[in-house]
């Protein structure tokens, strides 16, 4: 049975991952990792850098956005209801050919057309680089990615979570999903995608014998006014 947890190997080249780790260590920008409610090291013990919008991280940000968009296209072809269950999506090469998409359409939908649909519905979240120290770092708290505290409701726009593992020269440190009873072992350059809701409650296990580095974020819905247009008046 499908568990909606997908792992795509070699989404980011190993040499690129190594370069990103080197830049992380040389930057001096890392800060204590936060959870939605603030700083709670007993829930999450990490050092983080938010790279989105920072010029010195622009090249790295592009690498991750391209990787997640490629992975998202593969994910939607396998799980088309990720897109068409929340929304009625219509598509056509010209106005006379516009029609409602069905799940069966995704197998033959051209890459360019699927990419256009993805960009019209989804956007990448803020990308966070994280380092978990061997024997002490981790995110042991069972959690999901939806969080209602944000007054702008950005966190409620999260639809999928993703993680790129930047190294694997350690033991343990898996991403563990509670309900699916599944542990995903880190592999350098691999991309993990899964739903953001409570059905995929998860935690990040503590690495042993070496530090663990990841990049992580979300796929969010675009704001309603972008998808549907501004309401009249």
Automatic annotation (TrEMBL):
Signal peptide: none
Ranges in coiled-coil conformation: none
Fe2OG dioxygenase domain boundaries: 120-221
A Pfam family per the record: 2OG-FeII_Oxy_3
Taxonomic placement: Bacteria, Pseudomonadati, Pseudomonadota, Gammaproteobacteria, Lysobacterales
Keywords: Dioxygenase, Iron, Metal-binding, Oxidoreductase, Vitamin C
Cofactor(s) recorded in Swiss-Prot or TrEMBL: L-ascorbate
Protein name: Fe2OG dioxygenase domain-containing protein
Keyword Metal-binding: yes
A GO molecular function held by the record: iron ion binding
Domain of life of the native organism: Bacteria
């Amino acid at each position: 049975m499908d568990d909606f947890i997908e792992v795509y190997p070699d989404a980011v080249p190993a040499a690129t991952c190594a370069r990103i780790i080197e830049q992380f260590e040389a930057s001096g920008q890392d800060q204590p990792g936060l959870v939605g409610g603030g700083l709670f090291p007993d829930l999450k013990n990490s050092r983080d850098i938010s790279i989105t919008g920072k010029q010195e991280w622009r090249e790295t940000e592009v690498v991750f956005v391209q990787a997640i968009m490629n992975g998202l296209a593969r994910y939607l072809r396998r799980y088309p209801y990720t897109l068409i269950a929340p929304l009625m999506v219509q598509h056509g090469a010209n106005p006379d050919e516009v029609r409602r998409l069905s799940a069966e359409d995704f197998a033959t939908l051209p890459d360019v057309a699927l990419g256009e649909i993805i960009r019209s519905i989804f956007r990448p979240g803020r990308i966070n680089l994280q380092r978990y120290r061997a024997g002490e770092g981790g995110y042991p708290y069972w959690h999901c990615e939806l969080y209602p505290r944000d007054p702008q409701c950005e966190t409620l726009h999260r639809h999928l979570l993703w993680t790129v593992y930047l190294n694997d020269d350690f033991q343990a440190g898996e991403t563990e999903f509670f309900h699916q009873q599944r542990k995903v072992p880190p592999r350098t350059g691999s991309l993990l995608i899964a739903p953001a809701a409570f059905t995929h409650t998860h935690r990040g296990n503590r690495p042993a014998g070496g530090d663990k580095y990841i990049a992580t974020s979300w796929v969010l819905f675009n704001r309603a006014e972008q998808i549907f247009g501004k309401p009249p008046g």
